[in-house]
Design a protein that fits this description.
mainly alpha; 5 helices; two-stranded antiparallel ribbon
Length: 183
């Protein structure tokens, strides 16, 4: 959920998103978008009132399309066209997703701490990361579908629980687990 509202929101110009989808989905091909490199708009960054890490740096935002439902629908069509539903049962999807997470991990292996924004990464490395993260998300969305979990609604419920477990007034600046805090 984005923390901005209205036409002055980051990434919006009038009624059209100002980002590209980096993909060939025809459903979104007719919309006008600004250039994007691996999900990052090439226009001047927008500033958010919320600060990520307290640094005052600009906050990254995702493009508004495709939605999680759009991704679910595209993957369902892809799977149906290939008659792969017989293989895409929850356990198999979970194991495939874990394998893809391993491929993401491999990209970070032996690099030490990696700063936000991935300074020093080549365009090729960024694209490889984008592809592997996409694989993880595709499997996650399909797993949620097969398990009948409405993922966006589940995220809203989970965020509400996290706010109760980790009240900002109590945990600000601390990495302790919620069971370690005293009332």
């Amino acid at each position: 959920m984005m923390a901005t509202h209205g036409k002055d929101a980051c990434g919006l110009k009038g009624d059209e998103p100002s980002v590209s989808l980096n993909g060939g989905n025809e459903a979104f091909a007719n919309k006008s978008h600004s250039p994007v490199v691996n999900g990052a708009a090439t226009e001047a960054p927008c500033r958010s009132k919320l600060q990520n890490g307290g640094t005052g740096a600009e906050r990254f935002t995702f493009s508004p399309e495709p939605t999680v439902e759009d991704i679910r629908r595209m993957q369902a069509e892809f799977t149906d066209e290939r008659d792969w539903n017989q293989f895409h049962q929850p356990r198999n999807l979970l194991l495939a997703m874990v394998g893809e997470v391993g491929e993401v991990s491999e990209l970070f292996q032996w690099r030490g701490e990696v700063a936000e924004g991935l300074p020093g990464w080549t365009e090729s490395e960024r694209e490889q990361l984008a592809q592997e993260l996409s694989d993880v998300m595709i499997y996650l969305v399909e797993l949620a579908e097969k398990c009948r979990v409405d993922l966006p609604q589940a995220v809203l419920r989970k965020m509400a629980l996290n706010r109760l477990k980790y009240p900002a007034s109590k945990v600000h600046g601390s990495a302790k687990k919620y069971t370690e805090y005293e009332d």
